Amino acid sequence: MATTTLFTLHLCRFGQSFSKKLFSTSPSSDTLLNPHHVTFHHKLRRPNSSSAPAFFRRFSTVAAASTSGEVNYDGIGTADEKYDVIVVGGGHAGCEAALASARLGARTLLLTLNIDRIAWQPCNPAVGGPAKSQLVHEVDALSGEIGKIADRCYLQKRVLNVSRGPAVRALRAQTDKREYAMQMKSVVESTPNLSIREAMVTDILLGKNDNVEGVCTFFGMKFYAPSVVLTTGTFMSGKIWVGRTSMPAGRAGESASHGLTENLQRLGFETDRLKTGTPARVDIRTVDFSGLEPQHGDKEVSWFSFDPDVHIEREQMCCYLTRTTGRTHQIIRDNLHETPTYGGWVEAKGPRYCPSIEDKIVRFQDKESHQIFLEPEGRSVPELYVQGFSTGLPERLQLPLLRTLPGLENCSMLRPAYAVEYDYLPAHQCARSLMTKKIQGLFFSGQINGTTGYEEAAAQGIISGINAARYADGKQLIVLERESSYIGTLIDDLVTKDLREPYRMLTSRSEHRLLLRSDNADSRLTPLAHEIGLIDDRRWKLYQEKQARISEEKKRLRSVRISGGDLAAEVSRVSGQPVRDSSTLESLLKKPHIQYGILDEHGFGNIELSRIEKECVEIDIKYEGFILRQQSQLQQMVTQQHRQLPEDLDYHMITTLSIEAREKLSKVRPQTIGQASRVGGVSPADITALLIVLEANRRKAQEQSRYKIMNAMRAKALEEEVPEVSCTETVSS
Amino acid sequence: MLRASEKPNAVMAHLPALRVLLRHINCLIPPPRTSMPALCTIRATCHFLLLSPKPRKLHATATSKGPENHALLLNRDERVARNVTPSDVVEKGSTIAAIVTSLGGPPGAVGIVRLSGPSAVSVAGRVFRPAKRSKNNDWKPMSHVVEYGVVLDSEGNVIDEVLAVPMLAPKSYTREDVVEIQCHGSEVCLRRVLRTCLEAGATLAQPGEFTLRAFLNGRLDLSQAENVGRLITAKSVAAADAALAGIQACLTRIWFDLILQCNKISLRMQCIELLTEIEARLDFEDEMPPLDLNIIMDKIHSMSQDVESALEAENYDRLLQSGLQIAIVGRPNVGKSSLLNAWSKSERAIVTEIAGTTRDVIEASVSVNGIPITLLDTAGIRDTDDVVEKIGVERSEAVARGADLIIMTVSAVEGWTSEDTKLLERIQSAKSSTGSLIPVILAVNKIDCNPRAETDWDRGCQSHDIFSKRVFTCAVTGQGLQDLERAVLELVGLDAIPSGGRQWTVNQRQCEQLVRTKEALERLQSSIKEELPLDFWTIDLRDAALSLGQIIGEDISEEVLSNIFGKFCIGK
């Protein structure tokens, strides 16, 4: 009877067009014929389930494929080397991946080259900025850590683009780099299910079915897990450059990781090299700030995290502005032959959004001066980050160059600027779940996928962490659609488009950014995080209460009407528009320049609402028309865009596609029509051709499966009695 | 359960097998509600993943290379979901429109504009007014029931009498909601109806798109299906052939097209440039010099004007083909026929001193700025007992009703008379029967006989603000005829056209692009007026750039970014 219930239930859910899809795929025939083949999983809900019998069903295949003993999960002595998820790398991607995985209940191992450098900020210790802050909010909405740590360790916070619209408003925090690393390290260390170990991973262990089984380290250790996340950053065959001199290193003073690239290549992965750099650091005590323009933090501090527990204000530090001088430009012009790009010994150009100072001076010769930001790196460190001043000049020229800047005339340099070159794996080799297409259970995240930035790394990290844990658990992988979030946009771009430079998130990369704001990151993503078990009950309760308050308040503003009075007078003065009698508060908020604050001032506000909640209410009401229009545009588009493409489609055989499209699509192997349309070189005509092929294939499959089903039914009819279940009504309805 | 119900017995008899199958399919496919996987599918998937009573093993299939059965998450902003009523979110997929009867040959008696898509009915409802009007404004057609009515443009003017044939999903060619509007077969008429539909929210169908939709929605059988690809390519080949033929037949026209292309590209480039300026500020706030909003607004304004003038070309195009019908009406013996003769530089109409000389409608052709104009001289309208003249008067009134424009002639010598007032009333009543307003020009003729009349008329005319324009003419000397032509051009919206005529023509596709661009720019200007933040400007600028794009769905972001990096010194 249980099956019957299930059956009816599904029918109801399927609704009318059930029949159409019923025959639309051809499930493997043996599954079809064997009712016992369908397996059900117990939902894995831990942290503390110590018993969890034979953790993951998937392991059955793994165990069968490997030598006995090694993969025996019940074994006592070797239990330490066997995990559900192994994360390689302890940077911003690695930390989020390991935390998400462990929080989902997977036994997770974090392997890093140096435990003291967990969550290190090797470049500018800053978090957020346009588009990046949205990523941080989204990661936080999924219960990631980056936003909380940045909120705890900030030196200065500013909201950028304040008056330019809610979607581009961006929080940026200067953080204390030592404190940041320590805080993150302590979170990682204290998370249940998460172990840390220093190791240099040199190889991937493979199972028989092109699946990952674990990793192998330089010293010969083997760690086993069905899911492995690689977050190698700049370390894979990393090489740093100062002037013409180079040495193998992942970062200044830290050894590179060798061997892994070759082994990945051996497995058939395509690798390539990228380059990035970081400017010099000067001693803050040797800088004369008296003549420089200070840049203070916001008086009213904003927060990355939706968790009010980390909203603790602290004293802010000041940043300063200086400018390049004629002398700076002179030194650079005189020594252009000493720079890698213009000297001609490095082919690769740096990212366009992060040009070296020599690039700026050569390309924009008419600009007499460029802004340089001086930003402290911590409360207890004397280092000052010289933003906008990265250079490939040799070290002997760097100090003289720094000393041409006003305020830095007598400075001493603590670290020279350097560039770093590293291996990455073009991300078209990953699916949007960030699992590689070649090897099941292997995930890539962060700079290994060609991105730059802590926020981009964290965003990928949390997705790969979630999926690694889910994969190990035998669950469906999660994909954030492009339209759902900046995280989705980031990953979609990475796996679909050709990369010319390290990828940085920018608001202009999102087609519907009005819908992907910081303020609604939680209402977009937290429900998902809750459903998959990442958000704990406390956060979920907070979230629900917040949404309820916002919703209630919007209802109240729609119903409360005013006629005349101080508020009406002020509103018409500020907005320059008349206020009609018995206007709702909602209609007042829709007028230009009217903010919730005005309601507060005249006693029409709701004192129970927090500043953030008021902002949400204001945005929802003020821009309702635009938001709805974008939403409906999106939905029109999505109809076709989300049509799935079969994975085994042989594009080379589709002669109606252009040759270029066949090649590009074979390489990228997009998962949806929308993704296919974003692959460079694929025209709308190609998309039409694809749709036709899909439909023709579907029809063929339908014919076949109908034939098979009929045969199967006939066979069954001979074997079994007809059970007395009256399902006909449901069936035919 | 369409297919299964074909064999109900078999289904009943083999339930266990079916059950297995169902369970299996439950694992593999998200529950579809429409034949195209739409939003609801995705939502359902998600819902499915999360709330499914039993977790499912998803990577059981041996053929699959990985567990790529993903949960797809669409923007499910709970906050938005809370204030959106379901009816706001129903529209899935676009609604397309096209003229489906052949164009180019001699006009057929009837032509058809077809709409297909989820909002076909609502788009049709916006342009179509059934003769039997229901109380509420929503058009709720019954499927496969023909309705008679008129098509109205956005300003409420009647464009044509039509029959609307609603065929609701799935019982239609495309298996979507389809509305076919049968209107008069001339190209001008069809294009006007199509344009109205486009303005009401439909998009212009690609060649073969109806058939493509029919196929994708499972309408054609497999053997037909395999021909669809060929069919569509064949269509584009045919189009190319037609284009080739066009080159030979009409080189100049192609050349005109090219000019417009250039013009359009530059419009698109202007959008991209503006986007570059704005986006650079949004992504690199603290590194950029401040934006000069006035310059931006000026640019937007001049772009709007460019689009307007390009659309005017479309108007002009239409007029080039159809021409204008101008009826000259008035009391007897005010000089209507003289006016016609003077204007057409002919002796087409007999002119005498006897009132009521003209008994029938007399046509003469003139060309104003290249637009063919048919002048219709009519019998003087008055109450008469003469049988022949009476018929003439009736005809005059009929002609006035059917004209694009009316020139009401009065005599400067006699001034405004009570009969003129009566006549005006007649014209007015004639107008209300068709529902649309025909512009009327007041021509004060015989001005040479009473030059002082010009000042007197100013007062007299105020009471009759029905007149769109007033000119003083003298049919004998030809005085004021140029004023008359100018007034005519102004009224049909072509006053800005240089006397040499337009340099280009606009085809349907370009017209759609221009309509969309115009809408986007109008929204943009209202955003500016409402002082919305800068980010909101980019939304409509993007739309404008996309509408002007050569390819649907092209990637503007990358272009804007390249521009930003090329133009500005950015980077820390």
Write the layout of secondary structure elements.
The complex is a heterodimer of chains A (733) and B (572).
Chain A: H1 2-14, H2 18-22, H3 29-33, H4 59-65, E1 85-88, H5 92-103, E2 108-112, E3 126-128, H6 132-141, H7 146-152, E4 154-160, E5 170-175, H8 177-190, E6 194-198, E7 201-206, E8 212-217, E9 222-224, E10 227-230, E11 239-242, E12 245-248, H9 260-266, E13 272-278, E14 281-283, E15 293-295, E16 319-323, H10 326-334, H11 340-343, H12 357-363, E17 371-376, E18 383-387, H13 395-402, E19 413-415, E20 418-424, E21 442-444, H14 454-472, E22 478-480, H15 486-496, H16 521-531, H17 537-559, E23 561-562, H18 565-575, E24 583-584, H19 585-589, H20 596-601, H21 611-622, H22 624-641, H23 659-668, H24 673-678, H25 684-719, H26 728-732
Parallel strand pairs in A: 1-2, 1-10, 2-6, 10-21
Antiparallel strand pairs in A: 3-5, 4-5, 7-8, 8-9, 11-12, 11-20, 13-20, 14-18, 14-19, 15-16, 16-17, 17-18, 23-24
Chain B: H1 2-6, H2 8-13, H3 15-28, H4 39-51, E1 71-73, H5 78-83, E2 96-99, E3 110-116, H6 120-127, E4 128-130, E5 147-152, E6 158-167, E7 178-184, H7 187-199, E8 203-204, H8 209-216, H9 222-249, H10 251-283, H11 293-322, E9 324-330, H12 336-344, E10 362-368, E11 371-377, H13 387-402, E12 405-411, H14 418-434, E13 440-445, H15 453-462, E14 467-472, H16 481-491, H17 508-529, H18 534-547, H19 556-567
Protein name (chain A): tRNA uridine 5-carboxymethylaminomethyl modification enzyme C-terminal subdomain domain-containing protein
GO molecular function (chain A): flavin adenine dinucleotide binding
Family (chain A): Belongs to the MnmG family.
Quick structural summary:
The complex is a heterodimer of chains A (733) and B (572). Chain A is an alpha+beta fold and 733 residues long.
